[in-house]
Design brief:
Rossmann fold, seven-stranded parallel β-sheet, 8 helices, single chain
């Protein structure tokens, strides 16, 4: 039975990934930071294991590795780095502390998780790593400059690590979701959402399941010859 570690998965896209992999018979360990009740409910629903973890904390990532080794002594088949935070505002109004926090969670967190689990994949000569970036990491977004920079860094991490880990048969890919219906869109008016749907060639917003199924594909045997790729799951919003 294959197994997965996914960071930042108590809600939204991450939670749907947990459900998707669990439906396909995978054993899952996922992390959460603040949404304890949602994480516990998801764990009960899917049978997945939940662990509180600050993605940017080296000590917490060490605990995550230890828990994964305890639960899955045979090794980890896939890692999805989904933990992340966002910020909206003008760059000139952004504090250095907020800039650092965005990179601490979004980029340092992905690095720490990768550094923890990559050696085991290399020793087994198998494994799949998926980073969750954003379409704004591909093209940039006004008023989300720091977020765009973080997500662009994940694309660079994907391409470099795919070359480095490829000879060990470890695949590394990146998902770039578009506009997805999650609670992050709670502040959008119905008119805002209608405008976004109109701007999307496929005429609808994305769902967490759209992203989850794409992540599952990249981790599955169907993607055995795919590495170093950036998959836009955005309905054509960015082409």
């Amino acid at each position: 039975m294959p197994n997965l570690v996914i960071t930042g998965a108590s809600r939204g896209i991450g939670a749907e990934m947990v459900r998707c992999f669990a439906r396909h018979g995978w054993q899952v360990l996922f992390t959460w930071l603040r949404s304890e009740q949602a994480a516990l409910a998801l764990s009960r629903e899917t049978g997945a294991h939940a662990l509180r973890c600050d993605a940017g904390s080296e000590a917490d990532q060490d605990r995550l590795l230890a828990e994964a080794q305890r639960l899955f002594p045979q090794g980890i088949d896939a890692l999805i780095c989904n933990a992340g935070i966002a910020h909206t505002g003008l760059l000139q109004d952004l504090s250095a502390a907020m800039w650092d926090e965005l990179f601490r969670v979004n980029v340092r967190g992905a690095f720490l998780a990768t550094r923890a689990f990559l050696p085991g994949m290399i020793s087994r000569r198998q494994g799949s790593i998926v980073y969750v970036s954003s379409m704004w990491g591909q093209v940039g977004a006004s008023c989300e400059v720091a977020y765009s920079a973080c997500k662009s860094a994940l694309i660079g991490l994907t391409k470099g690590l795919a070359k480095e880990a490829g000879p060990s048969r470890v695949r590394v890919n990146c998902l770039c979701p578009g506009v997805v219906e999650t609670d992050m869109m709670n502040g959008y008016t119905p008119e805002d959402k209608a405008a976004l749907r109109e701007e999307t060639p496929l005429g609808r917003l994305g769902t967490p399941d759209d992203i989850a199924r794409s992540a599952y594909f990249l981790c599955s045997g169907d993607a055995d010859f795919i590495t170093g790729q950036v998959l836009g799951v955005n309905g054509g919003f960015v082409i």
